[in-house]
Amino acid sequence: MAAEVARELRASFAAGRTRPVEWRAAQLRALVKMIEEKEGDISAALHADLAKPHMESYLHEISLAKASCTFALKGMKSWTKPEKVPAAITTFPSTAQIVSEPLGVVLVISAWNYPFCKSMIHCSIDPVIGAIAAGNAVVLKPSEIAPATSSLFAKLLPEYVDNSCIKVVEGGVEETTALLEQKWDKIFYTGSGTVARVVMAAAAKHLTPVALELGGKCPVIVDSNVDLHVAIKRIAVGKWGCNNGQACIAPDYIITTKAFAPELVDSLKRVIERFYGEDPLQSADLSRIVNSKHFNRLTSLVEDKKVADKIVYGGQTDEKQLKIAPTVLLDVPLDTALMTAEIFGPYLPIITVEKIEESIDFINSKTKPLAAYLFTKNKKLQDDFVANVPAGGMLVNDVALHLANPHLPFGGVGESGMGSYHGKFSFDCFSHKKAVLIRGFGGEATARYPPYTTEKQKILRGLINGSFIALILALLGFPREKR
Amino acid sequence: MAVVAELGETVSKLRQAYESSRTRSLAWRQAQLRGLLRLLKEQQETAFEALHEDLGKHRAEAYRDEVGLLMKSANEALRQLGKWMTPEKVWVPLVAFPATGQIVPEPLGVILIFACWNVPLGLSLEPLIGAIAAGNAVALKPSELSPCTAKFLAENVGKYMDAAAVKVVQGGPEVGEQLMEHRWDKVLFTGSPRVGRAVMAAASKHLTPVALELGGKCPCIFDMMSSARELQIAVNRIVGAKWSCCAGQACLAIDYLLVEERYLPVLLKVLKSTMKRFFSDADAMARIVSARHFERLRNLLKDREVAPSILHGGSMDAENLYIEPTILLNPPLDSAIMTEEIFGPLLPIITLKKIEDSIAFVRAMPKPLALYAFTGDAKLRRRIVEETSSGSVTFNDAVVQYAIDALPFGGVGQSGSGQYHGKYSFEMFSHKKAVMKRGYLIELTLRYPPWNERKIALMRHLYRFDYFGFVLCFLGLRR
Fold first, then answer.
1. Residue B200 included in any domain
2. d(CA B233, CA B376)
3. Under 8 Å between Cβ of A394 and A372
4. Measured between CB atoms, which of B185, B400, B406 is closest to A414?
5. The pairing of beta strand B326-329 with beta strand B310-312
6. Domain for residue B117, yes or no?
7. Interatomic CA distance for residues A232 and A199, integer angstroms
C-alpha cells in the first residue's frame, strides 16, 4: 500500500500537477475552508484524544493553522520568484539567479501531542502547508496515538484538497516502516530521538534529506530580578496550558537560586490554584495524558521515594480518567529519571543553585534543548544566556510564544533535531534552491584553456581575483593566440 | 587499536577546544582566515607540487580550480564575516508588544569534513573556511588517494592555524569509519553516493546532521549555435569543462553530451580540432588518480557493446595512468558508461531527433549536480529550468558557476543535500537560533485559564490581528 501511494504521488508530481502557483494557492485556500467549516469536529476529535480544552484547541491548533495557511498564501508569490544575485567579474558577462523548486514527493510523519497542529497546523500542518506552497506532493502520516484526530484527517482531507497529490496514510509502526522503505525526496519527522534515528537510517538508504523536530528538556531559568507573578503565570500556562506538559516546547524544569526558591514555589501554588481550582483533576481546562502507557511512564517517574518526597504541590492522579494534576517538586536528585529524561508531562521539578549564573553551565551540561527560557530583567544575564546557551530557540520573559511568530525559524539543534520551519522556513524546508547561471558568448577568456602559457596564467590570476584590468585584457582577446 | 585510541583523543581534544570558547570570537575567526591566506601564499609552490604529484595537475589548473578560488573565498569571508555574524532582526506581531525578535547565528560545535581526492585542496579548505567563519572547531579528513596533498595539509594547517581547534586526520576508509563512530555536530562529505549512504547511516546513530556533496552524470545539452564564432566558443568551453578539469574526474565535469543528429558532423569537426589544439602538450591534462580508477575506466571502454562506439581517442598508457581524451557515439543506454558517473576523460555523445527530447532524457536519469545547456533559444532555456531538476543549471558555459560566491553550490536528490560557498558556507555550519524577548509591561490575562467562550472570542480577533475588533469585543460591544 505504501508503494502504491508513493507511485501515485510520483506520477502526479511528474505530470506537473503541483507546480502552478494557482494549484498551490487553491489547496491552501481549501485547507482554510476545511478548518473553518469543521472547527467543531476538529475540537471534538482533539477532546476525544486528549481531553483538550476548547480554548487550547482554538489557540494552539486551529487558529495557528489558519494563520499559517494565510501567511503562506500571502508570501507565496514572492517566495516562488527567482532571486537575482550578483554574478562575478570572473564570468562577465553573465546573469545569475537562485530558483526555488520543489523537492518532489515528501513524507510528513507527525507526532501525537499536537495532532492537528502537528499534522496540518503549526507543528505539522505547517510542514504540509510548506510542502504544498513549495509545490510538492505530500503524504501525511498522522500519529496513531491520537486516533480520533488521525481518522478525522483521513476523512476530511480528501473532501477538500487534491487527493491525487496530497494523501493521508493512517497506521502504526508497521505502516510507518512500510512508508520509510519507499524513496522520498524529503522526510519531515516530529517525535522522539529514538525513532528519529530509525527514520534517518532508513532515509540514508535513499540519500533522502530529513528534517527532525525532536524534544529535549526545555529549561526555565528564573532570576529573582523579575515581576514574579507575571513570570509564574506565563510559565504555568506554558507548562500546563499546553497539553498539560505534553509539548516539545513546554518548560521541563526550572532553575533558580536557593534563596529565591521558597518565594517562587509559593507563587506557583497560588497561580496553579487560580488557574485550575482546588481540585485540578476536576478542571475542564486541563488536558489528560494521551494514553495509559504514557500515564504509567509518568507516574513511575515519581514512584521512587527519593523523588516522591520532593513533591511540594500537587501529585494527585486519576488512573481511570488518565489525569495527572499539575505537580511541583523541589531539589529532586539529579541522577533520577525525572531529571535525566524529557518529562513530557505535568511534573515540574525545580533545581536550585547558589548563584543564578551557574544555571547556564547546568543547562550546557545536558544535551541542547529545543527551547530555553529565561525570566529576568537583568540585561547582562540576558546577553550571557543568548550568547552561551545553544538551543533550538529561546525566549526571554515568556514561554513558547516564539512558535507563533512566522518570521522566526522553529527547530532544534543537536539532540533536539535538525532543520527548521514555520513561515517561509517551511517553504524553504521543502525546496531546492537551484543556482542558474546564464552566460553569453560575449566575453571569451582564452586564458582559461590549455596550453597554459605564462601570459595566460597571469591573466587567469587576475580574472579569478576579480581584477577589472584582467577582465578588459581577457575581453580584448589577450593573450593573442597563434592559429 | 592504537589508531582508534589516537582518533578518540583527537576528537575529544577538538571538543575541549570548542567548549573552551576559543573559537567563538571574531578575532579568532579572522586570525584563522588570515593564517589560511598566508598558508596558500607562502606554500603555493609546495601545493602545486603536491597536486602535480597526486594528479599530474598543471599549475594553471591548480591555481584556477583550487588555490586561486580558495584565496578568493577566504578574502570574501574576511570581508563579510562581521555581517554574517550579526543577528538578523525580525518583525514581531503587535499583540506581543513589547517584544523583540531576532535570529542569532551560532556555531554548531565540532565539524568533520571529508574531502575527495580530485580537488583535494579545494574540497577540504573551502568548507573549512565556512566552518571556521561560523566559529566551529574542525577535523579535516583528506582522501588517502591524494596522499601528497593530505600530507601537505597535515604539515601546514597546524602551523598556520590554531592547531588545537583545527586538525588534519590522515588515513583510509577505516579511519573514516572510526571517525564516524563519534558524535559530531555536523559532517560534510564529498564523494560517491555509495559512501554517502554509509556516512549518513553512521551519522544517524548520533543524530549528526550531514551535508552530502555527491556526483552524478552532468549532462550537456547542445543546441544549434547561430554562428561559427559561437560554435567555437561553445566547444572551447565544453572541451575545457570536460578534459581540463582534472581529466574529467570532477563532480561538475560534463559527463555526456546530447545533440541533434543532423548537427553531429559539424560539432564533431570542431570538437576534434579544439581537442588537438588544447592538448598538444602531454602535461596539459591531468592523469588518472590511481590504477584502480584506471582499470575502472578501461573496463567502461572494454565493454563489448561499448567498444564499437568509440569515435575518437581511446588509447591508454597504464604505466603513466594516462587515458587519451576519448569521444564515443551512442553507446547503449544500459551500459555502465551510460548508467554510472564516468569521472574520467571519456565523453559519450547521444544523438536525438529533436533537441527538445533532451529534457525527457535528462528527467529519466537521477538528478545531477549540474546541468549544462548551450542554446540561444529562450523558450528551451525556460523549459530546461522549469522541467528538469539539478543542483545547478548553467547556460552556454560549464563549471564556472563554481567560482561565483553568490550562488549556492550543492546537489539535490542523488547528487546530494546541503549547499555551500560564500555565505552559504557560513550558514551550513551555523545554527540559526530564534530569540524572542518580552517585557512585563503589558499582560494579556485572556491567555490564562480558567477559559471561557468570551476569552476565545477575544483571541479570535487578536489572532487575526484585528485589533479594532478586539477592542470592541473587549468592551462588550461585539461577540
1. yes
2. 13
3. yes
4. B185
5. antiparallel
6. yes
7. 38
Question: Do residues B150 and B97 both lie within one domain?
Answer: yes
- Contact criterion met (CB < 8 Å) for B233 and A444: yes
Burial call B122-134: b when 16+ CB within 10 Å, e when fewer:
bbbbbbbbbbbbb
Burial class of residue A287 in the structure, from the number of CB atoms within 10 Å of its CB (0-12 exposed, 13-18 middle, 19+ buried): buried
Number of domains in chain B: 3
Please say whether the beta carbons of A75 and A424 come within 8 A: yes
State the greatest distance between any 2 C-alpha atoms of chain A, in Å, as a whole number: 97
Nearest to B385 among A66, A104, A436 (CB): A436
Question: Cβ separation of B279 and A450 shorter than 8 Å?
Answer: yes
Please report where in the chains the cell 558556507 appears, as a residue.
B425
Write down how long chain A is.
Answer: 483
In this structure, are B225 and B365 located in the same domain?
Answer: yes
Q: Is B213 a catalytic residue?
A: yes
CA distance A315 to A308: 9
In this structure, is the dihedral angle defined by the CA atoms of residues B424, B425, B429 and B433, taken in order, positive or negative? Answer: negative
- Considering the domain boundaries, does residue B259 fall inside one? yes
**Can you say how many angstroms the Cα of residue B436 is from the centroid of all Cα atoms in its chain?**
33
CATH code of the domain in which B195 resides: 3.40.605.10
Active site residue B251: yes
Which are the catalytic amino acids of A? 213, 248
- Per-residue confidence band for B470, with pLDDT thresholds at 50, 70 and 90: low
B437 domain-assigned = no
Closest to B312 measured CA to CA, from B325, B323, B299: B325
Residue written as grid cell 523548486:
A101
Report the CATH number at residue B385. 3.40.309.10
Q: Domain range for residue B245?
A: 218-407
pLDDT tens sequence across A216-240: 899 999 999 999 999 999 999 999 9
Residue from B375, B382, B400 whose CB has the most chain A CBs within 10 Å, to mutate: B400
Angle (nearest 5°) at CA A178 between A174 and A179: 115
A 10 A CB-CB count for A324 gives 27
Test A407 with B193 for CB contact under 8 angstroms: no
Are β-strands A311-313 and A253-257 bridged in parallel, bridged antiparallel, or unpaired?
unpaired
Q: Does A442 touch chain B (CB under 8 A)?
A: no
Contacts of residue B363 in chain A, CB cutoff 8 Å?
A: 14
How far, in Å, CA of A444 to CA of B141, rounded?
A: 37
CA pair distance B249, B112, nearest whole angstrom: 24
Show contacts of A336-339: CB within 8 Å, 24+ apart.
A336/A301, A336/A304, A336/A306, A336/A307, A337/A300, A337/A301, A338/A301, A338/A302, A338/A307, A339/A253
Query: Nearest C-alpha of chain A: how many angstroms from B292?
Result: 26
Characterize the bridge pairing of strands A317-318 and A323-324. Answer: antiparallel
- A41, with CB counted inside 10 A (0-12, 13-18, 19+), is middle
- The helix (run of H) or strand (run of E) holding residue B78 is helix B68-85
**Cα(B415)–Cα(B432) distance, rounded to whole angstroms?**
25
Query: Do B139 and B277 fall into the same domain?
Result: no
Global pTM value: 0.93
Residue B391's closest chain A neighbor by CA?
A434
Asked whether residue B375 falls in the same domain as residue B342, the answer is yes
CA distances from B366 to A242, A246, A365, A387, B219 (A): 44, 42, 44, 43, 11
**Claim to verify: residue B133 and residue B26 sit in the same structural domain:** yes
pLDDT tens digits, B290-309 = 999 999 999 999 999 999 99
Question: Is there a single domain that holds both residue B207 and residue B237?
Answer: no
pLDDT at position B143 is: 96
pLDDT digit string (tens) for B7-17?
999 999 999 99
Cell of B217: 552524470
Report the first-to-last Cα separation within chain B, whole angstroms: 74
Residues 6+ apart with CB under 8 A from A194: none
